[in-house]
Write a structure and sequence with these properties.
The protein has about 80 residues and is mainly α. It has a domain at about 1-50. The protein has helices at about 1-25, 30-75. Helix 1 (about 1-25) crosses helix 2 (about 30-75). The model has no long low-confidence stretch (mean pLDDT about 90).
């Protein structure tokens, strides 16, 4: 997954820079360093998004487990009545 996220992010960054040049009616490869910068930023952003998604899924699982335990205590533990 990290390799595909890196590739998708790099292509997104490259595509964004080329689209920007096309909108301004400039040559596609006017400043090649801008394309490299866009690819780098896109790759980092895509990898951070994958990490964030995994962390948010882990946090959600913890919250759901806490909610399940709280519901079990509320409805199935009648020892105090």
């Amino acid at each position: 997954m990290p390799l595909s996220a890196t590739m998708v992010g790099a292509l997104l960054g490259l595509g964004t820079q080329m689209y920007s040049n096309a909108l301004r009616k400039l040559p596609y490869m006017r400043h090649p360093w801008e394309h490299l910068l866009g690819m780098g930023i896109g790759a980092v952003a895509a990898n951070q998004m994958v990490k964030w998604e995994a962390k948010s899924n882990e946090d959600l699982d913890k919250l759901l487990e806490k909610a399940r335990l709280a519901n079990e205590r509320r409805y199935f533990d009648d020892d105090e009545d």
